[in-house]
């Protein structure tokens, strides 16, 4: 019963946040306006006051609103006060042209973070002394779980987990670089990363094998300390375009390809 209650509360909070984001991002509530008191919002929404309070705190963390002593919550100009947690919502409400610009900007930031992190990893003394570093062990562990999910029937749950594993794979590289700011920036885009990649994998299931093959090659390059090859391959892997199975264009291809075909894709990437 307790678990069910927590799930309901979370659902109510998310619903409240989504409704408020719609009002704020579409400027139906303008910057500078005061929000109704929490008790009034709770009555309007038909939920408890703690749910409203938690939702307002989350909206505040995203930079959409801020608390003003003795007045309550005031609406911010999100273009001036918005924070990284707002990114997914802003993307969702953007026009196609604006969303494409966000995609390009995010790809550039991701390229800079991952390339610099791998460079910092290769610069450490540990890399010179061992080929079984914590990074390599972690990448192998993630990659093995990917294969287990790939070999299963690709239902939404498996695709969702593969999306998470893809995120964890690249985050492991950033962690190994030792730059906390890079790690926080990457984590901040986690929700949007999941939304976009899960949709891509759902619509292009044949690309899941391609992604796994590319990661296998990258792990090999890192293990063998082949720095130039690793940087060149990572550069290709930054965009999901690298995951596209080009041979599938114009014909139907199976969601799970044979292992031999998998290796052929790897050699062509």
Provide keyphrases for this structure.
single chain, 269 residues, mainly alpha, two-stranded antiparallel sheet, 2 strands, elongated, disordered N terminus, disordered C terminus
Tell me what the structure shows.
The protein has 269 residues and is mainly α. 70% of the residues lie in helices and 3% in strands. It contains 14 helices and 2 strands. Strands 1-2 form a two-stranded antiparallel ribbon. A hairpin with a 3-residue loop joins strand 1 (65-68) and strand 2 (72-75).
Share in β-strands: under 5%
**Count of beta strands:** 2
Q: Which structural class fits the helix and strand makeup? A: mainly alpha
Overall spatial form: elongated
**Number of helical segments?**
14
Put the structure in a nutshell.
The protein has helices at 2-25, 38-45, 49-61, 78-81, 87-93, 96-122, 125-129, 134-151, 156-177, 180-188, 190-203, 207-223, 227-237, 259-268, and strands spanning 65-68, 72-75. The protein is an all-alpha fold and 269 residues long.
Please write out the topology.
Elements: H1 2-25, H2 38-45, H3 49-61, E1 65-68, E2 72-75, H4 78-81, H5 87-93, H6 96-122, H7 125-129, H8 134-151, H9 156-177, H10 180-188, H11 190-203, H12 207-223, H13 227-237, H14 259-268
Antiparallel strand pairs: 1-2
Helix pairs in contact: 1-3, 2-3, 6-9, 6-13, 8-9, 8-12, 9-11, 12-13, 12-14
């Amino acid at each position: 019963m307790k678990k069910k209650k927590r799930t309901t509360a979370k659902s109510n909070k998310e619903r409240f946040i989504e409704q408020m984001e719609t009002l704020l991002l579409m400027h139906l509530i303008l910057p500078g306006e005061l929000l109704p008191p929490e008790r009034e919002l709770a009555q309007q929404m038909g939920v408890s006051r703690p749910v409203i309070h938690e939702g307002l705190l989350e909206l505040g963390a995203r930079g959409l609103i801020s608390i003003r002593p003795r007045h309550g919550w005031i609406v911010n100009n999100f273009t001036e006060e918005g924070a990284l947690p707002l990114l997914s919502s802003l993307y969702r409400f953007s026009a196609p042209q604006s969303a494409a610009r966000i995609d390009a900007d995010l790809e550039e930031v991701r390229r800079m973070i991952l390339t610099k992190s791998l460079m910092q990893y290769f610069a450490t003394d540990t890399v010179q002394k061992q080929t079984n570093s914590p990074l390599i062990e972690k990448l192998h562990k993630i990659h093995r779980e990917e294969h287990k999910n790939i070999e299963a029937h690709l239902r939404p749950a498996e695709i969702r987990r593969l999306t998470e594993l893809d995120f964890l794979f690249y985050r492991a590289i950033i962690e190994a670089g030792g730059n906390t700011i890079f790690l926080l920036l990457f984590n901040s885009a986690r929700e949007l990363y999941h939304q976009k990649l899960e949709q891509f994998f759902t619509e292009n299931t044949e690309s899941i094998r391609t992604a796994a093959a590319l990661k296998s090659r990258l792990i090999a390059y890192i293990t063998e300390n082949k720095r130039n090859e690793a940087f060149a391959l990572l550069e290709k892997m930054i965009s999901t375009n690298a995951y596209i199975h080009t041979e599938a264009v114009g014909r139907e291809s199976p969601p799970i390809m044979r292992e031999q075909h998998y290796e052929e894709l790897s050699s062509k990437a």
